[in-house]
Specification:
There is one protein chain. The protein is mainly alpha-helical. About 80% of the residues lie in helices and about 0% in strands. The protein has one domain. The chain has helices at about 5-25, 35-60, 65-80, 85-105. The chain is elongated and about 50 Å long. About 0% of the residues are buried. This is DUF1825 domain-containing protein. Pfam families: DUF1825.
Length: about 110
């Protein structure tokens, strides 16, 4: 069975994408959130990044051709911006840490 033939993989990919889209839309109103809302948003983004990191690791570890092609496409797309997948995750983490620090200043 191919990597993408797995119902579990398909479900997780769909759920991850939908959750990410919802968080991004929600994030458009981040500036209007109260302190607790901002804190919750940051926590949800951190959890999302953890899920995404795990999902991508599954692709990397898979020997399935399509999984490997997906990883290569991601690397090619990110390379156009001069970053690696690892740097992308690090940058997201830095951004979330800054958001947390800003929240701490407000308390």
């Amino acid at each position: 069975m191919g990597f993408f033939d797995s119902e579990i993989v398909q479900h997780e990919a769909k759920q991850l994408f939908e959750d990410y889209q919802s968080l991004i839309q929600l994030g458009n109103n981040y500036g209007k959130f109260d302190r607790e809302g901002k804190k919750l948003f940051i926590e949800q983004m951190e959890a999302m990044m953890d899920r995404y990191r795990i999902f991508m690791k599954r692709f990397e570890l898979s020997e399935d051709f399509m999984a490997q092609m997906t990883i290569q496409q991601l690397k090619t797309q990110l390379d156009q911006f001069g970053v690696t997948p690892q740097q992308m995750f690090e940058q997201m983490n830095i951004t979330l840490q800054r958001m947390k620090a800003e929240l701490e200043k407000q308390s």
